[in-house]
Amino acid sequence: MNNIYFKLMRYSGFPLLFREWVQRNKVTILMFHDLDAKNAASTFLWLKQNYHLIGLQEYLDAVQNGISLPKKSLILTFDDGHAGNYQLLPFIKQYQIPVTIFLCSDIVGTHRHFWFKHSKELKSNHQHLKKIPNAERLEALKVFGYEQTQEYEDRQALTNDEIEEMKSWVDFQSHTCFHPCLPQCDEATAREEIAVSKQHLERDYGLRINTISYPNGDYTDRDICLAKEAGYICGITVDYGFNDLHTDLFQLKRISVNDARSMDELIVKASGCYAFMKQLLKRKHQPIVKQK
Ligand SMILES: [Zn+2]
Question: Residues 110-162: pLDDT tens digits?
Fold first, then answer.
């Protein structure tokens, strides 16, 4: 059903119009998580042929120096630091793809789990758990056998060696320490998640961390202040939209591609028209406020 939907959408010409009219003079940031390596070559090649791929750091330099960017500039980002990201490295090298991966600093290099990926049973409670105070969420997760500092048999995140090998090809940035929902954290916890993540990534891998991707795209003005206080210069959301040289660097817009499983889905989602329609429908049903 999904496949037919995306095929129809693709050939409706709507994504093409979006690319040429909306994305042409904007900077699009795409969000992936754990793109399957078997789709990597086709995904990267198609994006490279239809957009101008730039690195996040190139965009930040352009903003700071007022340098204009090529038409249809597009930035590829991956959240979390999933173990499967390592399988993308040969394609990143072969096709020279600039990529930013946002790491949970205290999960990568360990056998700790991403809380939302810990077990199948937990997945059905996932949305609810994002909406409760952080301390309550951590208590509730114990029922599912999850504790954030516990190491498990299977590994979900990139290893230290993989990060070391990838770092000359990949821009690694921060996604907090343990992936809490920042607005659900008290101030001390939010400050620690934001600041310590940067410190650990810089200490452990010799990285230069200047950007945070807010877990689940959830943030408040307080979290932006904490990010500034910790020394970041940029914060990335999953708010719908496109960017230019004047977009607030702590509220950069991003389009979720959600590890598209077919070319039809990729083309439709990368254009932003799918997210645009979802946004329209959401507004129609909930005409009130944007939640942060
Ligand atoms: Zn995440």
Answer: 999 999 999 888 888 888 899 999 999 999 999 999 999 999 999 999 999 99
**Ligand 1: distance of its center to the CA of 22 in Å?**
27
How close is the Cα of 257 to the center of ligand 1, in Å?
Answer: 13
Domains of the chain from N-terminus onward: 2-110+157-285 (3.20.20.370)
For the whole model, what pTM was predicted? 0.94
Sequence-distant (≥ 6) Cβ neighbours of residue 100 within 8 angstroms: 55, 56, 75, 76, 77, 78, 170, 171, 172, 173, 211
Q: How far is the CA of 66 from the centre of ligand 1 (A)?
A: 30
> Cα(179) to centroid of ligand 1, in Å?
6
Q: How many whole angstroms from 32 Cα to the centroid of ligand 1?
A: 10
Residue 35 CA to residue 48 CA, distance in Å, equals 16
CA distances in angstroms from 8 to 182, 255, 264, 267, listed in the order given = 38, 20, 9, 12
